[in-house]
Amino acid sequence: MSIRENFSDADMDQWLNDNRVTEIECLVPDLTGVARGKILPRAKFTQDRGMRIPEAVLGMTVTGNYPTEDLAYNRAISNTDRDMILRADPGSITTVPWAIDPTAQVIHDCYFADGTLVDFAPRSVLRRVLKLYAERGWRPVVGPELEFYLTEKNIDPDLPLKAPVGRSGRAETTRQVYSIDAVNEFDPLFEDIYDYCALMNLDVDTLIHETGAGQMGLNFQHGDAMALADNVFYFKRTLREAALKHDMYATFMAKPMGGEPGSAMHVHQSVSDAATGRNIFSMPDGSPSPHFRHYIGGLQRYTPAAMAILAPYVNSYRRIVRHTAAPINVQWGMDNRTVGFRIPISGVEQRRVENRIIGADANPYLGIAVTLACGYLGLIDQLEPTPMYTGSAYDHFYELPQGLPQALDLLRREDRLRDVLGERFVDVYTAIKELEHQEFMTVISPWEREHLLLHV
């Protein structure tokens, strides 16, 4: 399933004609989830199917640097700055509703010159995992829930973020979780967001106010993993544009404000039989199946090694703190929001697992790919979970890495995840994240100046 399911190149061209599109934004999600690519006039897009951009675009840190001294990285990415060939996914074509002239955007897959997928591209990693499921006759079903903050514009990065001023003329100063009135403070913004999403065919669902000041959450309808990753990718871009129109910022940082909860991308996940559509997590009599237990067992066993992907930045680990609405371990429980893996109350066909560990800052393709990879390994290895946790899991000890260096070390050493995700992807990804951490370590924080300058 895509935004426009079963679209062909001919269907895409007809859609461009019907919508009188004059420009096309040709997008490639990079490892950070940033939209890279080119903007082409309509005629050039039609002529140049197979547009090219440098392979190194997929090998950059979030600051735009390259880990060129890393040997594994250099084995994975050519030092000749060669091109990738980009091919549009016709089903992902949609409008750019904030553009002045009729403009389309379409997501591209990346290929080497020999016609094979660039294996360290985020969409390729997700395709690789989904192929493993398909070979077993299974089809993952996912439903992301994405949290984010609205903030005042922050021109000086040395200054802390502030909650935005709503239509009342005041910023939030108290907890407004699930408050309808607090959401209505930003009605003009959310009306634009819903209008944009409708024009783009993004199947968004419930909007709520989360715990933090200016923190909101949006649920997506469940469905195909690639289509939902595309939707999250598009939505992040759409929300930022809409916020700027209303003189605000929207941020998906995992922990943008001190003293406020972090933002997550909770992913509900189940697996269906591709032939029958039946949820394999349930037995015919309605009881939980062995597959259900094994999937949870896989999440528990491999998620610590996946944390560098689920929590990809130094800032991500500021969210993984006890009693801050984020899990600190891999326990699981029924309708329990303190555990890493919550089992929502549901019908037999809706039986699913909610991964509450993934940060809002995670690349949606990689975040979904690696949580499905953990579950897949549990299924094929028939891993058993620990007993269900019944109390507050904040009383349990930490089972997740508490910093990026530890998480990268776990990912590098986990051969089973490397096999599923792809060796070159792991080599490229870990090299990039290691360089990002080195760059972060050159920056002195306000805390250090406040508490160490005159006291040590």
Automatic annotation (TrEMBL):
Keyword Nucleotide-binding listed? The answer is yes
Instruction: Provide the leader sequence positions.
Output: none
Q: Which cofactor does it need?
A: Mg(2+)
Q: Which InterPro entries match?
A: Gln_synt_N_sf (IPR036651), Gln_synth/guanido_kin_cat_dom (IPR014746), Gln_synth_cat_dom (IPR008146), Gln_synth_gly_rich_site (IPR027303)
The organism named in the record is Duganella callida
Q: Name one GO molecular function term.
A: glutamine synthetase activity
User: Can you give the residue ranges of the GS catalytic domain?
Assistant: 122-456
Keyword Cell membrane found: no
- Similarity-based family: Belongs to the glutamine synthetase family.
Pfam families the record matches: Gln-synt_C
Q: Which UniProt keywords apply?
A: ATP-binding, Ligase, Magnesium, Nucleotide-binding
Q: Which SUPFAM superfamilies match?
A: Glutamine synthetase, N-terminal domain, Glutamine synthetase/guanido kinase
The name under which this protein is listed is: Glutamine synthetase
Source superkingdom: Bacteria
Q: Which GO terms describe its biological process?
A: glutamine biosynthetic process; polyamine catabolic process
